[in-house]
Amino acid sequence: MKLESKIPEGPLAEKWARQKFSLKLVNPANKRKYDIIVVGTGLAGASAAASLAELGYNVKAFCFQDSPRRAHSIAAQGGINAAKNYQNDGDSVFRLFYDTIKGGDYRAREGNVYRLAEVSVNIIDQCVAQGVPFAREYGGLLANRSFGGSQVSRTFYARGQTGQQLLLGAYSALSRQVSTGKVKLYPRTEMLDLVVEGGKARGIITRNLVTGKIESHSGHAVLLCTGGYGNVFYLSTNAMGSNATAAWRAHKKGAVFGNPCFTQIHPTCIPVSGHYQSKLTLMSESLRNDGRVWAPKSKEDAQKIQKGQLRANDLSEDARDYFLERRYPSFGNLVPRDVASRNAKYVCDEGRGVSKTGLAVYLDFADAIKRDGKKTIEAKYGNLFEMYEKITGENPYETPMMIYPAVHYTMGGLWVDYNLMTSIPGLYALGEANFSDHGANRLGASALMQGLADGYFVIPYTVGDYLANIGPADKIPVDAPAFKEAEKKVHEQIDRLLAIKGERPVDDLHKELGHIMWEYCGMARTAEGLQIAREKIKALKKEFWSNVKVLGDSQEMNQALEQASRVADFIELGALMVEDALNRNESCGGHFREEYQTPDGEALRDDANYAYVAAWEYQGDDQPELLNKEMLEFENVKLTQRSYK
Amino acid sequence: MKINLKVWRQKNSNTEGKLVEYHLDNVSEDMSFLEMFDVLNDSLTRKGEDPVTFDHDCREGICGTCSMYINGRPHGPQTGATTCQLHMRSFNDGDTIVVEPWRARAFPVIKDLMVDRSAFDRIIQSGGYVSVNTGSARDANEILIPRTIADEAMDAAACIGCGACVAACKNASAMLFVSAKVSQLAILPQGQAEHKERAERMVAQMDAEGFGACSFTGACSVECPKSISLDHIARMNREYLGAKLTSDNA
């Protein structure tokens, strides 16, 4: 397959403007003749659905949650970046672009990332106009803070609930369009297949989660805004329902999947407490602005702490190792996520971890409280401290928090061109569901920016170009053979899952997949380990399809059935992640292959051989996928070894 | 810990439900309440019994999906927390815990502990927004909002739409939910242009959905996992009255 990125010609700063001018427009009177399907109602989906409806298109919006307001964007805490330079501290569109490209370890497209930085400023304006209550200074102007890995203050925030407020803003815009009749909402409805006919995306097959009814929906274009696939690992900071099914089934219908192995492990999460653990909770990375990360210098002290014979506060300053400050004097505790996570892992691997399991390090606010006072710290992080105390039963004002890395975000996703179109014409992917803007590692406060950039400011322009080219007549009815065939396959898979009647509940198999992925395809990977994972996943797939136990039937609310169908896809996607990690013989960003590191343990890229997007093409059940390469070209930044020393 | 559970089981909205007893022997105090239900469902599934259906998603207290009525209180004994944030250390060995769905005419039961809260979405659709199309905003810093106002708006905007306020109210009133949105947009300059119609429309929709009247007992605010203040109800009443007295729309 030939992958064309369709990045426009011309200087970086003019590309998007040129593209906007060259894209065809749909006549205002004709917009009502087009139907657009939007799957997912998080930041990307809600903003896209609202903006497209405002333009006059007919939109159908689907979500598996009971309300669009509950999409997992809601849980983002820290903030959203924008190159407003309100703080006069040297920020600019180019600097945000540069930081994002560098932070992604030079595995993202220059054109896409520059556009992201460029529209970031419009996002803030839009959200404020909607009534999003961003934090303010006393004079009434917007407040900013610096955020993970950034040396300027460009992050806008609403307490520790920025994702919630931005999503409620987008949800309110969406709700307004529902009231005008331009958007029809389908909550508690899950997409189970994509319908492709004549080489174009024609619609989707869904299951009503309350009644179990399988339905077909036809449209001129389909937008997947379905988030990431972190739940491949079972334990992650994702919501329990976050899944890859829509994206994966589109992949099996021909949409190539970009860089599946690029996953982000977030350094500041609450550690695992037991085998029953169902999810991991993130503590916003903004905590690293004031908290100092440390572990005991000696293994002996760590062991005593693990056994409960010693407490953190008992250790004197010289018995503590502030390992991020020591190794990275210029960035200190603010190094990017991948670097912070890996270093916590090393410390624990050395036996210097704390907590009962030995898999945790400290995040200490004692100095910040001494310096700024408890009140200031409370104003900044009060709700996070409370959340921590609710989960762990410990008071972080008095004793250091314990943190450990957890799977948080997936940079990989469906491959898209500059217009956000996948390799299937008429099928688009927005937000975390696509692969495009974060390279091998995403910077803090950039996910919200990307989701809203795609939905509010990119797709309204680019989808029009496709629609204008195909014309309103180019749509097929839901009783066309392509829909009937896809419906039949969906029914068959559901019946097959219910017919297995094996021994193991879905979660049990999902946990096993999670263990394999975390162990062999997590923070540090080796060729040897990945080969083990490959075999284990193969065996697990067999076990799943012969031994999963799903009770009940398909014509009712059946949560185990929903979950089983998602886990079946996670297993296949997990296998592809392993292949991708095995193929990429270099370390970059969140992908760390132990064989490829600098003498002092940093990721060692191989730009000569791997400066490409690995775009995998499905070849049929249990067939190896075909690797396509989109070479990345860098004209505006010089590829350097990332250094945060 | 040993825990005895009495859980509401109801096959669907057309059948009657009842409380069913379950006993769990190995409950850890570090488990979340929902993780205890995971353990219960695992054992029910292995025994071939239908697992308990319940709503849950983010499990960190922000999505507003989880909704269990525990020992007569929405989200259980802890204040300022959702069901998913409740941990078993809040209970004692040997406790009997009664778990029911939200009870309200406007929230019909779908199955077991899961209810239909789409009435809340329809209330927001009736006016819980600022009418501003994408692209038509001016520079964000041109709107000055004093910090105290921004903070107050944020307090109201923190609502997660879980419905605990309705479940806590003897009249199943949705006033706290509705007033939080009305209030947030009423105190911000961005919401001024539409503030009268907003209050009128949202109240009308609330009534149409079958929520009860507010008798200002304050139970909603006490049980609200985000501690939304009753002040917002007072502000909404002012907004609504003012709108009724002066508007042409009524």
General description of the model:
The complex is a heterodimer of chains A (645) and B (250). Chain A is built from 17 helices and 19 strands. The longest helix of chain A has 25 residues, at 559-583. In chain A, strand 7 (200-208) and strand 8 (214-218) form a beta hairpin. Chain A has helices at 15-22, 43-55, 93-103, 110-130, 162-180, 245-252, 299-307, 323-327, 337-349, 366-372, 374-392, 447-470, 481-500, 506-521, 527-547, 559-583, 607-610, and strands at residues 35-39, 58-62, 80-81, 155-156, 183-186, 189-197, 200-208, 214-218, 221-224, 257-258, 263-269, 292-296, 320-321, 361-364, 401-410, 413-414, 427-429, 612-617, 626-631. The relative contact order of chain A is 0.16. Chain B has 8 helices and 7 strands. In chain B, a hairpin with a 2-residue loop joins strand 6 and strand 7 (114-115). Chain B starts with a strand and ends with a helix. The chains are: A alpha+beta (645), B alpha+beta (250). Chain A: Its EC number is 1.3.5.1.
Topology:
The complex is a heterodimer of chains A (645) and B (250).
Chain A: H1 15-22, E1 35-39, H2 43-55, E2 58-62, E3 80-81, H3 93-103, H4 110-130, E4 155-156, H5 162-180, E5 183-186, E6 189-197, E7 200-208, E8 214-218, E9 221-224, H6 245-252, E10 257-258, E11 263-269, E12 292-296, H7 299-307, E13 320-321, H8 323-327, H9 337-349, E14 361-364, H10 366-372, H11 374-392, E15 401-410, E16 413-414, E17 427-429, H12 447-470, H13 481-500, H14 506-521, H15 527-547, H16 559-583, H17 607-610, E18 612-617, E19 626-631
Parallel strand pairs in A: 1-2, 1-9, 2-5, 9-17
Antiparallel strand pairs in A: 3-4, 6-7, 7-8, 10-16, 10-18, 11-15, 12-13, 12-14, 14-15, 18-19
Chain B: E1 3-9, E2 18-24, H1 33-47, E3 69-70, E4 73-74, E5 96-100, E6 109-111, E7 114-115, H2 118-125, H3 147-157, H4 164-168, H5 175-187, H6 195-208, H7 219-223, H8 231-246
Parallel strand pairs in B: 1-5
Antiparallel strand pairs in B: 1-2, 3-4, 3-5, 6-7
Helix pairs in contact in B: 2-6, 3-5, 5-6, 5-8, 6-8
